[in-house]
Specification:
By secondary structure, the chain is of the alpha/beta class. The protein is 50% helix and 16% strand. A hairpin with a 4-residue loop joins strand 6 and strand 7. Bound molecules: S-adenosylmethionine (SAM).
Length: 333
């Protein structure tokens, strides 16, 4: 089923309707991934047994399931909620971590700026690459409202000078160039003319098919040339591979089905392009990160700290950590 592009956060709903547990994290660096995981593990480890935990902008529950893994070591498990404004349904779409996902109470189509929880419900509020996509004045006010006095918060946000933003910028440019190219029109024409030539078999139809093959080859060659020296070609390679498989399917699929598959690929690329742009816009520079710290202090945050999030062998910057507690009583700040 194709989701409606006019829905709020359509680009994220499309992403979470695929078999992905999480987004954004550096996919090439297992070591880097583990160092972020270690920080999250320490955060959840420090919580009291039976703690209530909230994951803001949970997506398919990548962070919430890390809380579940820690919870499973406790005599009394945590109660873990995850909210997201997108149309999430992790149990339906994610094939990994099934046993962990069932332990999370997911709230789809739920805004961080208007949380459906009473004041001071949670012992901990966490978020990974999500609060920076929102109106932070409203979402952080909500986050601290639902946090108990003495409760802990930890947020990971995109950094303006981080490697994830660099990769997003590159991929957003690639997606835009592909969407503006003749790739989809040329592929649609190629499929139609190949099928026509094989069905009608006149010299004219065969000549038209040959023309379409030449046109399609020129479009592919041009795209390959444009991206030949790009450091990260994963988006381009995945997309071109998906499109190249379509002509080979024409004997087992109707033109109508192939056209729908081509449109689905274009739809996914449009969503990806929108997501990559949103991520670039969300990234926070050092000055804005310091403003978030001050804002959290103003809301009653105590021991509020700002640290660079680094990963991998090269200590790549992958964000800012914002952490602290909610002052137990006035004067604790
Ligand atoms: C970069 S993803 C991070 C997802 C997840 N935390 C992870 O690490 O995989 C950002 C998420 O924030 C969600 N989001 C953006 N704005 C939101 C809002 N105002 N309220 C709730 N969720 C929002 C998006 O739908 C998306 O799932």
């Amino acid at each position: 089923m194709m989701l409606d592009p006019s829905d709020p956060l359509w680009e994220w709903s499309v992403f979470w309707h695929s078999d992905q547990l999480q987004s954004c994290l550096p996919d090439t660096s297992a070591a880097g991934d583990q160092s972020l995981q270690a920080t999250w593990r320490a955060f959840f480890d420090a919580l009291p047994t039976g703690a209530e935990v909230l994951d803001l902008g949970t997506g398919n529950g990548g962070l919430a399931t890390q809380a579940v893994a820690v919870s499973k070591t406790r005599a009394k498990p945590f109660v873990i909620h995850g909210v997201d404004l997108a149309d999430i349904a992790p149990a339906q779409f994610v094939s990994s971590a099934k046993d962990l996902l069932t332990e999370v109470v997911f709230h789809a189509r739920t805004s961080m700026e208007k949380l459906p929880f009473p004041d001071e419900q949670f012992d901990a509020v966490a978020s990974q690459y999500a609060i920076e996509y929102t109106n932070t004045e409203t979402s952080l006010t909500e986050a601290l409202r639902v946090l108990k006095a003495g409760g802990h918060f930890r947020f990971l946000v995109h950094a303006d000078d981080g490697v994830l933003k660099q990769r997003c910028r590159l991929q957003a440019g690639q997606a835009e160039q592909i969407l503006n190219s003749d790739l989809f029109v040329a592929t649609g024409t190629l499929l139609r003319r190949l099928i026509d030539a094989e069905t009608i078999r006149t010299a004219e139809k065969i000549a038209e098919a040959e023309q379409a093959i030449a046109m399609s080859k020129a479009v592919f060659d041009d795209l390959e040339k444009r991206f030949a020296h790009d450091e990260d070609r994963s988006l381009v390679d995945n997309l071109l591979t998906a499109i190249r498989t379509l002509p080979g399917m024409r004997r087992s699929h109707s033109m109508q089905t192939l056209a729908a598959m081509l449109e689905e690929i274009r739809h996914l690329l449009l969503a990806q392009s929108k997501r990559l742009k949103a991520m670039q816009n969300a990234a926070v520079d050092n000055a804005a990160a310091s403003e978030l710290v001050n804002f959290l202090r103003g809301l009653g945050g105590a021991q509020v700290e700002l640290e660079a999030a680094k990963t991998g062998r090269d200590s790549d910057c992958v964000g800012h950590w914002l952490s602290g507690t909610k002052a137990a009583k006035a004067g604790d700040v």
